[in-house]
Amino acid sequence: MNIQLPVPQDLRETIARVGLRALDRERSRELARTEVRDLVSAGIGRLRLPRSAGGFGLDWVASTEILLELAAQDSNIPQVLRGHFAVQEDLLWRADAESDAAPDARDLVQRWLARLAAGELVGNAWTEPGKGGFHQSGTVVSESTDGHVVNGVKYYTTGAIFADWLDVTARDAAGRELAVLVRRDQSGVEIDDDWDGFGQRTTGSGTARLTDAVVEEAELRGLNDRFPYQTALYQHFLLIVLAGVSEAAARDAAALLHERSRTFSHANTRTPRTDPQLLQAVGEIDAVAALARAQVLATAASLDAASAARSSTEGAQIEAANAVELATGRAQVALHRPVLEALTRVFDVLGASGVSQSRSLDRHWRNARTVTSHNPWVYKARIAGDHRVNGTAPVRLWSVGEPDAAHTPSAEGPTGAPEKVTPGA
What we know:
By secondary structure, this protein is an alpha+beta fold. It has three domains: about 1-120, Butyryl-Coa Dehydrogenase, subunit A, domain 1 (Orthogonal Bundle); about 120-225, Butyryl-CoA Dehydrogenase, subunit A, domain 2 (Beta Barrel), CATH 2.40.110.10; about 230-390, Up-down Bundle (Butyryl-CoA Dehydrogenase, subunit A, domain 3). It has helices spanning about 10-20, 20-30, 35-40, 60-75, 75-95, 105-115, 230-260, 275-310, 315-350, 360-375, 375-390; strands spanning about 120-125, 140-145, 145-155, 165-170, 175-185, 190, 205-215, 220. A hairpin with a 2-residue loop joins strand 2 and strand 3 (about 145-155). The longest helix has about 35 residues, at about 315-350. Residues about 410-425 have low confidence and may be disordered. This is Alkylation response protein AidB-like acyl-CoA dehydrogenase.
């Protein structure tokens, strides 16, 4: 696929090179440290930054085109980058919202935009083990002689092990939920590469331990003050991964069938690549890859609409955020079955040779199964149905953890009674 977008040629070439050792990294579970840094140097982290701030000024549709190409080369890396893009999106939202704000607030946003333009990378550190994170973070920000410090344990810290900064959810002494940016290269931050999932094995989604990690007071921001479609943006990146895996599987199936020479005595043709049944199987895989791509680009368009709403009324912002939350959820529901089925069809194309460990074709299914297990689709289907039938708006900011006596899961979600909108919208 040739991306015709206003990005430097070296970024395109760097994306192409990412795939050269992707299979080796998968086999040995080697983190793509060099590849991630090469991509950041080439500008992957600046896609959404305005040109005036040192970026490429791309919208979400154009950015997604590039990220889809990257996902087809190595599905782990777009997931590594999603926390970075979320913080970047929040900065862009604040840049508009705080245009009339105090000089200190404007200066902070501009300082962060400059950091991202210079190639600094942000990783995610939201989810916590056990009860932590269910309605209230177990990670705590407190005052100290150094100003403010953060203490807590995070898991599923995707991208953090590659990053310069961690985007951390925490609470203060008053119980206020915060999102704080913590510098990684300090003694109070320890990250373990202990993610043991059978798919997306090199995302670095392990444990982060924060022990009196210093954070500047200016970096303490209310979690509910973040841009209103952040969980939808996180889901969008998982959809990018799913579509990239589908494209990679279609590519592998076609290439391996084209070079295959052995066939069965009862096959349709002497040459496997002309066998109509095998061609049909590849065609089905290709169709699902195209479907996944179309769905992801549609959710990207919803993200662009939500982003554009930052200059509108609060009501318009909420409406656009609800729309993109529903769009990403519907896409997850719509894609999970056909994608997983298509990834098993790869083995129908190749016979027993397709299960060779040297090819690791099972990685496509494992990677797809892993991202479809995040933010489970069954809840997204229920939310879509509740919206269609009852006009219930989706929960835009939710959490996961072990409930206790004070917090029982309910259809109301973590922020109280759901909003109501027109059924069938």
